[in-house]
Amino acid sequence: MTGNSRDAAPEPGGGKRPAPGQPAREPLSAVQVIDYLRRHPDFLCDHPDVLDVLRPPARTSGNGVADLQQFMVTRLRSEIADLQAAHDAMVATSRSNLCAQARVHKAILLLLGARSFEHFIETLTTDVAVVLDVDVVGIGVEQDRDCTHASTPRCETPGVFRLAAGAVDRLIGPGQQVMLRADVDGDPAIFGPGAGLVHSQALIRLTISSTTPCALLAFGSRHADKFQPGQGTELLSFFARVVETSIRGWLNLPE
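The structure assignment produced for this chain is given below.
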């Protein structure tokens, strides 16, 4: 209630409800409705939604000339309905984006609380997976062609997998930073023993340091439509930058 006297306008016919045990009143007549509207000329201004259910009269002007009033009103109603649907979709998308943003922020805070590199990787591949609502998280690091690179993260660490040289460009695309794929079978080279769970994936290029091989961050989901081409990748890219910076710090690597 707003306290406006219009909110308390009486219903057609006096607004009185029959007392318990009394017979229901007769349906309102057209004359009563017209009389009520004349006594409350602002009724439709206060209740514009009523206009959506009213049918405008169709008029003809004779000589085969048709009045377009009804057509125009119908079209306007359709446009209003479309605008309302677009508004609802925008609100739903905004809420979904805010939820995803909150998840990423929470995941980053978990990573910042790691006490060692091993703890960092463990948090990334377990706790972060839960927070981001994915089934598998892994890091793939390309193997050096000479296999002597001293700065490569240790691939015996659970959740870190060694990839063949050139695999990152092959999987993500030369010059590309993110690859989203739906309805796929998980690759054991990326997801290890959890590959069987993966039916959609997000692969993000990691540039850890100028002294380390190419790497990627992989998210896998059992839902075939969790990751799809065309989805926004800003949050995933931001999260990957945090992972890069953290690994660089733990391993004391230059940029």
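Interim note for the steering committee: Residues 61 and 67 are 7 Å apart (CA to CA). The chain has eight helices and five strands.
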